[in-house]
Fold this sequence. Notes:
heterodimer, A: mainly alpha, 2 domains, 19 helices, 74% helix, B: mainly alpha, globular
Amino acid sequence: MTGAALLRHCVFAALAAPALLLTVLALPSFLGRPWSEEHVGALTRAAFLTAFLALTAAGFLYAAGVRHPISIRLGDWFASEGGFVFDLLIDGWSLAFAALSVAICGVVSSFSFRYLHREPGFHRYFILLVCFVLGILLVALAGSVETLFAGWEILGLSSALLVAFFHERPVPVDNGLRVLTFYRVGDACMLSAAVLLHHWAGSDSLSLLFSGAGQQLSRLGPDKVAIIAILIVAAAAAKSALLPFSTWLPRAMEGPTPSSAVYYGALSVHAGCFLLLRSSALVQYSLATRFLTAMAGLATACYAALVGRAQTDAKSKLCFASLTQVGIIVVEISLGLDTLAFLHMCGNICLRLLQFLSAPNILHDLHELENDLGGNLEGGHAPPAIFGGALYLFALEKGFLDGLIDRRLAEPLERLAAFMEKFDRWLCRAPLAIFGDGDVR
Amino acid sequence: MCAEKVLWLASLAVPPVAVLTAYTFGLRKRRFYSFAAMCASLLVPISAIPLAAELARATAPRFGVLSIVLIPFAAFLWFLAVIVTPSGRISEAGVARTAAACLLEMAAFAAVAPVPLTLAWIATSAILLAGHLDAEFAGAKRIIFAYLGLSVVLLTAGLIIASWARGRNAVLEQCGIALILLAVMIRKGIFPFHSWIPEIFEHGRIGPAARFNAPQIGTYAALVLAVPYADAGLMKVFAALALVTAVYGSLMAFYQNEARKACGYLFVSQSALVVAGLDIPGRGALVGALILWICSGVALAGLSRAVLSLEARRGRLRLDIHHGGYERMPLLAVCFLLMSLAVANFPGTLGFIGGEMLVRGAVDFFPSLGFFAIIATAVNGLAAIRMYFSLFCGKKDDGTHLKTSRAENLGFAAAALFLIGFGLAPGGLAKVFSRAETAATRIEGISTR
């Protein structure tokens, strides 16, 4: 068996393990006979370990022998009418990101067994976490638009449902819907890019976007490439909470701490960066898209650095710290520093994961530190002196972005919907006038 | 070949026989028999799907190849209604009406001739009207009478004019087709004739309204009577109106504070998407629309029935508050979520395949308006998931009245599994639709324009 064939088997095993785990966990829960917590733990550990080992082996095989991007066709979803193909595109970055993702999720799942012990939503949490793993693997390894889009949507939904995890309280539920709304905007941009790629290039293969095939891109023409690139940047911006989509990020902190760690500290918030990194050929194709991407990244980094300084809770501070680095990573991508951006991304993922997971112990850690130092630590509570009153208020209110979106977008749409409802009622009654009665009640 | 032919005919015959058999049992027993009959009326046609395209043409009497999917689809919707509707919300007269409507729909779906289709159109409209004869539904009755009465008149006039003018006067024939399309627009709620559907959901009876809208006889009538003969320009206007309606319906569904009305607008939006797909040239969009037809029919019927089940326990449901109760009915909540995801065209559900194919086709045909399909899909998903959050999340409610019955669990689980099962393995369904006789007729029709 050749190295490439072995690599295919490894990648297939890495995808099959979480898919199988999802089925094994979800079906009994659906039928009202969920596994015990111990069994969930054992099954999850086994599946994540299998996926991680398979991806590590695939990485070694790739580095040792293959060394060039390969496309793997796992099969047709269905064949008729230009049906959907299930393609994967394997290269060093995709394998590294996939392996890192599975490792991170493995760590988080181990942490979660104790953190969520006897929590009513224990099984729901693990089903959603496995959905997330499947989604991120599909995003990392996608070779066709359908595969990428499927992974992208699974990521978004599992994220929104985990934000609304404590669904007895209305605030997490409302925030979950808000997060999902932003994700749907990103999904619509992603789907539009995919459809346009299919429409103009007649292909669903992501190698056109990902492998930097300059000649293939130039055949499309600069305008079309720019439109697809802008849509991809918008999709990535929604997923990575870049400006102007940043307002969902602090709202997403309502979920359990382990899910905040894996989604908003570590992987999900970097999924947009990974997409930009993979499609860097497209982003760097024209000066306009490079500039746009750089500005989005720079503005986000400045905004998040400023807002993060004024936050009063640990999770919000951490999420804005993570977002600051995400902005810088996006700038690096726009400058063509792909390797630096990838290393920066991996480093930020690991650091934020550690910080988020240790956030519940922050007081305990602080007291230990003070004991070791032999006295109280000073400072850290007052806002920094560089903040004037207006700037501080701006940072504390997260740039008033929520209010701006509500006032300029949500409320006018709501008013329009109320007006249209009245119009519909009138329209419905109009034919009844023929019968001399417009009352429908 | 003979055995295959028997299987093909059996797959067409089993669903109506199953409906009739289940109907003859009493209400208490009917649920059990209905579930068994539902399985039979799905499994036999599924086993015959690989043969559908080859055998449809050779069979006498002649059936449309879509019948192999649409007849069990109509039966499934009836079984879903019988199994999951709470006892307090179902009467013998109601069951009789819906059984009659279901048999008429099956007859319509088996037909490729205009007369039986028109008769089924009229009879199903009359059955919806009969469900609203009580004094408390007087307003809804007037709306149904006005709108569906007008649609019947337009359909009949259009058919007479089109059939008389065919081969004699092309302009007059197109006028007839335009009248048929107007009738379809009214029945399916395409802008500006959309407003009656949400009103019926709000002021009428949600069960019959869902039962009337989910099978989408109007879509089938458009596919058989109008689409193969209509002028390209006419179809373009019709498709554009349908795409506008899809976005409009989805936005209105998202902003509704009444669960019933949100269901109504979701029906408007989804059926407009289906109509748009049928009107767009290219087999991809057509197959996508046909898949979406089945998906949205099952998903929206399921969502409406779930709203009815919840209303039986809690009264009228508003969407601007959180009702809670997930703990007492987790299976219903999960099924509701899965059906919402199908409406959102989420990967792994049947809607994903249909939606993607339709969107591609829409963008190919209408580079600018085609994106309306993407917006409609995105907002529909939000509207449906907002309903889930509102109806099942919120404060803990341990009231025993919230516990769902075994029949409800079975019915909703069957609907959810249907959407997931065909979403993961859509090959057979797509194959039947892509070889649909009507589709072929239509493609040929377009290529000769």
